[in-house]
Design a protein that fits this description.
Blueprint (H helix, E strand, L loop, with lengths): L2 H7 L1 H17 L6 H24 L4 H30 L10 H15 E6 L4 E5 L1 H32 L1 H30 L9 H4 L1 H11 L7 H9 L3 E10 L4 E7 L7 H18 L10 E4 L2 E7 L3 E9 L3 H17 L1 H5 L11 H9 L4 E3 L1
Antiparallel strand pairs: 1-2, 3-4, 3-7, 4-8, 5-6, 6-7
Length: 374
């Protein structure tokens, strides 16, 4: 088999890596917060972009090649949009204004579908796309702005990690530089190949994307205990002060609670009962909310944030800004508690002392704050 034939199939490896990340995220239940949704969507479109390039390089007719080229540009457009959104939310709090970033990409799609592709030309072994200059220049400018903005966010992330954990900084730096190098190298090589009359190899950008994909997969590996997300969560914990935490069964029964040392004690049973009444009121009064659950109550600088598991839910009272990484910690801790108490929770009798592991759950949430039990 000739080298060019191998290169035509290599985008399948890239697609497999990014789809493997998607499968890993879904399997680990990483699809609840905005950060997780943006990352999952970015990975899916990155894999689909590589798959589209595979079909393009191996197309048997100009019509099939044109369709694959259009799909390739479409999915890459969405990849860079969600890449930017993921990196932006990962280092900052999710804000509704960020959804404005979707608008330019959405507006570009009709241009991509309707008039950007002028046609395809056949080389000895594969097709190459030919684009109209004006719409292509607009699209390329869009891709450059969003990609560089996302890479800039990765640089900010690297600076945060470097200030907190020099050992993990090597990993965050590896992710940053792999994206930066592949971005620059891919655009440079694709641009050169696109100008050659009869290139010997297909444009390699979709193949090169396997490198940052492998870096991301390595970082997400469950075998690794030291995580960048934990470092970032601790760094962003400076923006809030956790006051109280309540672990409750789905029927509103209080299982355990903690209050920050020096905090004002409240009637815990009254708090849990009132919260349960509020949630039931929302579900019964607004039919559109049925099947969902209350997640946040805000009053001034104070927030009550709620995460639900299968049998229980966890409620935190904090002053300041919440973030997705805190919610992820809440959900992971809650699911671990439920797993270790599966038998007891399946035949729950309302006896809080039967459940174990709440102390460790609260320690992870409040650390390094000093606590006193209730």
């Amino acid at each position: 088999m000739a080298l060019v034939d191998i290169l035509k199939y290599l985008p399948l490896v890239t697609a497999a890596v990014w789809y493997l990340i998607v499968a890993n995220q879904v399997y680990r239940d990483r699809r609840h917060t905005a950060t997780e949704v943006f990352f999952l969507t970015c990975c899916f479109f990155a894999g689909t972009y590589a798959l589209s390039d595979f079909y393009f390089f191996n197309s048997a007719s100009p019509g099939a090649a044109s369709s694959a080229a259009t799909l390739s540009v479409t999915t890459f457009t969405l990849t860079v949009v969600f890449f930017f959104l993921f990196t932006q939310v990962y280092i900052a709090k999710m804000r509704s204004i960020y959804f404005v970033a979707l608008i330019p990409g959405i507006l570009l799609l009709p241009v991509v579908w309707g008039g950007m592709l002028e046609g395809v030309t056949k080389t000895e072994s594969f097709y190459l796309p030919q684009y109209r200059l004006a719409p292509f220049a607009v699209w390329l400018s869009f891709v450059l702005v969003y990609s560089l903005a996302g890479i800039r966010n990765l640089w900010k992330l690297h600076r945060i990690v470097r200030s907190q954990s020099p050992s993990l900084a090597k990993r965050s730096g590896g992710i940053l530089y792999s994206f930066l190098i592949i971005f620059l190298l891919g655009f440079f090589t694709n641009g050169i190949i696109g100008t050659l009359p009869n290139p010997a190899i297909p444009p390699p950008f979709s193949t090169l994307l396997v490198i940052p994909g492998l870096a991301a997969l390595f970082t997400l590996s469950p075998l690794r205990r030291d995580r960048i997300s934990e470092v970032v969560r601790r760094f962003r914990a400076r923006r809030y002060e956790l006051r109280e935490a309540y672990l409750m069964f789905n029927d509103g029964t209080l299982i355990a609670s903690r209050v920050r040392a020096g905090g004002v004690e409240v009637d815990q049973d009254l708090f849990s009962a009132t919260l349960d009444v509020i949630q039931n009121f929302m579900r019964t009064s607004f039919p559109i909310l049925r099947g969902t659950s209350l997640r946040t109550i805000e009053h001034g600088d104070y927030r009550i944030i709620i995460e639900r598991g299968r049998s229980c839910y966890l409620t935190l009272v904090l002053a300041g800004e919440e973030n997705d990484l805190l919610r992820r910690l809440m959900r992971d801790s809650l699911l671990e508690f439920e797993a270790s108490n599966a038998d007891i929770l399946s035949r729950w009798r309302g006896v809080a002392s039967e459940a174990t592991g709440s102390d460790e759950l609260f320690r992870r949430l409040f650390e390094p704050s000093q606590l006193f039990g209730q």
